[in-house]
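#struct-help
A.M.: can someone run this one for me? Single chain, 427 residues.
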Amino acid sequence: MFLDKAKINIKAGNGGNGCVSFHREKYIPKGGPDGGDGGRGGSVIFKIDPGKNALLDFKHRRKFSAENGQDGKPGKMFGKSAPDIYIEVPPGTLIKEAETGKIIKDMSNCDDFVAAKGGKGGWGNSHFATPSRQAPNFAKSGFTGEEKNLVLELKMLAEVGLVGYPNVGKSSILNIVSMAKPKIANYHFTTLSPNLGVVTVDEGFSFVMADIPGLIEGASEGFGLGHEFLRHIERCRLLVHVVDISKSEGRDPIDDVDAINAELVKFNEELINRPQIIAANKTDLIDLENNGQYFEEFEKYAETLGCEVVFISAATGRGIGELIEKIVKIYPALPPLKIYESETADMEYEEMRDARDIKINVEERVYSVEGGWLAGLVNSVNFDDRESVMYFQRVLNKSGIIEKLREAGASEGDTVDICGAEFDFVD
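D.P.: on it. Structure tokens below:
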């Protein structure tokens, strides 16, 4: 089975909470705060596995979660940071936002990519000691790890793509020139998924060739099987257009080339400028001596497209060597492999958290304040401790929440709800 698209959910671990503790030791009175910091939560990291060529790992598993960091401990002992988790994907996998479809990262010839960062651990109360506040009775909660819904989409990293109608011999060609063993039979849609093969020309030089399942007219609009795999052609640096020159299927090869090229353009206009070689296959089924004029006419047609044509027979091996020679000849001038740029803002997780994005909803003079970072703040406050409450108020002022409440119409005595904790607004 071939799987080239999957939707998954990833969740980085939360940071551990800071510890509230005071040093207790014989003969050392008032030892002071010694609460340690929480550990960082585990991150979710994507890495390339060159041995994979499909997204089968995601057929039954769609959720990936890292562990949370441990809470801090007394004696200024830090909580243990959680291990990162790694998700292996085939080279050429695009990581996209599920909601918008925007590309986050192209996993092609790149280093490991941190897709969801683990939350930082919260500070223990030892961080909040000052000359005027020598016994802080509060600590910070750990920050929440990132959570994302993603779509993984595989666009194969094949340099040469074999395209054309079903049953024209693409799989047979790949079978001859590489070690790949695709399924071959004399009926339409024998190939139900793309096949890759490495073509070794000589020591130190090789290239990857892909057999793209047969396209038909209307493929770009969803007809046939080929439309499911058109995305794999976008990476190819060179297209080898295979046609049945013998007309054994009752179609004219010139009409075939025109129809498939039209479908490629409808799918992606850039493909019309991709270098292309036409491989006229099944010459073993026609009389070569009495069809010279027809071959000349087909060559003239190929010239109008700016393409070279090679007459071959995948059944007998005729012309296969010449086809490889032409590919090798133009290989140095081929356009570079297409790498997709990120379409999302490059904003660090901590920067997003510090942006202090909040929402205020008003209902019957109750002002509900929502914001991802606020839950951690509320959980870190000891509301029975005066200094802790004063710290909470300072954060609300510095982050602009008090000002935003005023702008929303809050006045003396109104109720303010912050993540379930209710207060009377004091102006």
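A.M.: thanks! The radius of gyration is 32 Å.
D.P.: also worth noting: The longest helix spans residues 253-267.
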